[in-house]
Amino acid sequence: MSLIPPSDEQGLGQGYHSPQVDVDVRLNTNESPLPPPAAWVEELQAEVGRIPFHRYPDRDATELRAAIGDLHGVEPGQVFCANGSNEVLQTLLLTYGGPGRTAAVFEPTYALHGHICRLTRTAVAEGERNDDFTLDLVEVKRVLSEHRPAVTFLCSPNNPTGRVEPRDVVAHVLELAPGLVVVDEAYGQFAAWSALSLMGEGRPVVVVRTFSKTWSMAAARLGYLVGPAELVSELEKRALPYHLDAMKQAAGRLALRHRAEMDARVAALVEERGRLAAALGEMDVDTWPSEANFILFRPRRAGGDQVWRALLDRSVLIRNCSSWPRLDGCLRVTVGTPEENSAFLAALAQALA
Ligand code: PMP
Question: What are phi and psi of 305, to 5 degrees?
């Protein structure tokens, strides 16, 4: 028997990887540069001591969903939580995608949207963006009317370009889409507006968020979506029983008590993003406006791969997108601490020289 599963016929290739190398400055996976607040660690430790570990966790994640509901001013029943927003996306596609159905993506965008489509045997309809990576509404219209997708993915701010989709564009896509519109806002806190403001009961739109970035909890694997309660109950039927362990539920709930500190961190990162963008603007690179915690840029004369390696030689790791389709020669840097950003800029100046 062949151990190559039939799913590889769909071209999963090597899957999705970001190489991790031991370096001084790691700016390649868009995490928070800071660990969670010390008070959160203490509260979580105390809470873990109270968990009845011989029992299954609260299957409905009642308190966590109530806390997230409070954060966004929605009912707990409009919140679905999972092990990272990737699992939220997977559950969405298990529910609304699958054989015989299509999902639309607009490239370049977050690679996992297409990847999870292939895992769930959902056909992918790829639309192109404008050269400056903004959404082209004529192209959106074409893809939606030709393919009638059950799911339309938007990513705002978009990974890896950093661009936010304007409110009127998202509202327009919502009008055009024949099925569900999924707005992936993994970087939503860094942007000036959120599609959460377009939500309403009965409207076929969901907003997906994560604790991996702003909340400094990438290791905890927690993400969620806000959407119509009817949709959330459908997702719950497809999620595995007790998929959210008790520690994770406590970690997420307790994190939300530290909102003021996290908002201050977002503001500091946005300021550093401005400093990085201004510095890159003075260098021999092209950049695109970002409303996320990362910036995409392309060295004008040196090859992207060559610059990436020169940075690595200086112990600075960023994301090498230079061989990705439509991103020829591009690199993506995560906004880090002021010290990390300065180290990156110094290394880049040398690498470009
Ligand atoms: N969506 C986007 C756009 C992302 O960039 C990421 C992280 N790379 C995710 C979702 C997944 O985040 P997580 O599973 O850690 O919540």
Answer: -65, -40
CATH topology assigned to domain 6-36+260-352: Aspartate Aminotransferase, domain 1 (3.90.1150)
Is the preceding omega at residue 37 within 30 degrees of 0, hence cis?
A: no
pLDDT band at 4 (very low <50, low <70, confident <90, very high): confident
pTM for the structure as a whole: 0.95
Residue of 17, 20, 32, 85 to test ligand 1 pocket, by largest number of atoms within 8 Å of CB: 85
Specify the residue for token string 């039939």. Answer: 6
Cα 124 versus chain centre, distance: 19
Q: For residue 350, give Cα distances in angstroms to 107, 300, 311, 319, 344.
A: 32, 15, 9, 18, 10
Note whether 284 and 298 are within 8 A (CB).
Answer: no
Residue 265's Cβ-side half-sphere holds a number of Cα atoms within 13 Å equal to 21
Q: Give the CB-side neighbour count of residue 211, counting CA atoms within 13 A.
A: 29
Q: How far apart are CA 282 and CA 8, in angstroms?
A: 45
Side-chain half-sphere CA neighbours of 203 within 13 A: 21
Note whether 108 and 324 are within 8 A (CB). yes
Could you report the per-residue pLDDT of 80-125, keeping only the tens digit for each? 999 999 999 999 999 999 999 999 999 999 999 999 999 999 999 9
In the chain, CATH 3.40.640.10 covers 49-257
Indicate if ligand 1 lies below 6 Å from the C-beta of 223: yes
Q: Please, what is the average pLDDT of the chain?
A: 95
CATH topology assigned to domain 49-257: Aspartate Aminotransferase; domain 2 (3.40.640)
Query: One-letter amino acid identity for 90?
Result: Q
CA 234 to centroid of ligand 1, rounded, Å = 22
Nearest to 205 by CA among 223, 231, 186, 239: 231
